[in-house]
């Protein structure tokens, strides 16, 4: 696998999501990532730290262009806990939990995020406060995004061998059939 290509695909995908989801500085972006799937293997069977590093670097570069904050989802063995910067934990009033992710208990992406963030902490939940996200390889991130979660299509749908899904939030519709809605929020 060409690591630079993986990094570039990751960066490009997130830049497109930022644009399409109209993310702003300080918004929270959740990433679920199966490096096994990126390698063309079944999720949870072929964790790859080098690929996780490339994906992390590409995503982080893209998020940093707009000041968007990262939440890196761990795997099901940690009940999909998330790794965030301590400042993000405090800003969103999240509850820190005590766990250090490992490649086989947290996944390579979560482990990588924990090692590369300046002051990483694990949290059990984002309390549905993410504004958008990317699910690389079927890791299930929807529970972390603000209601209402809507799918988002960008110009491509694979990183390495893994399919990915993008999602964003939109405000709930209220008011019934006589209500008028702001097209910019749809």
UniProtKB/TrEMBL annotation:
InterPro entries: Antibiotic_NAT-like, DUF436. Pfam families: DUF436 (PF04260). It comes from the Bacteria. HAMAP family: UPF0340. Belongs to the UPF0340 family. This is UPF0340 protein SAMN02910414_01711. It comes from Lachnobacterium bovis DSM 14045.
């Amino acid at each position: 696998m060409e690591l630079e290509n993986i990094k570039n695909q990751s960066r490009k995908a997130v830049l497109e999501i930022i644009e399409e989801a109209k993310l702003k500085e300080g918004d929270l972006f959740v990433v679920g990532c199966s490096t096994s799937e990126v390698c063309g293997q079944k999720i949870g069977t072929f964790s790859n730290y080098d690929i996780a590093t490339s994906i992390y670097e590409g995503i982080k570069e893209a998020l940093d262009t707009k000041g968007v904050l990262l939440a890196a989802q761990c795997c099901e063995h940690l009940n999909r806990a998330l790794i965030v910067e301590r400042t993000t934990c405090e800003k969103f009033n999240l509850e820190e939990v005590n766990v250090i992710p490992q490649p086989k208990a947290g996944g390579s992406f979560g482990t990588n995020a924990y090692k590369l963030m300046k002051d990483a902490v694990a949290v059990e939940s984002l309390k549905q406060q993410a504004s958008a996200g990317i699910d690389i390889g079927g890791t299930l991130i929807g529970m972390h995004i603000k209601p209402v979660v809507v799918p988002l299509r960008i110009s491509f749908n694979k990183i390495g061998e893994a399919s990915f899904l993008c999602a964003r939030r939109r405000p709930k519709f209220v008011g019934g059939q006589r209500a008028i809605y702001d097209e910019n929020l749809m």
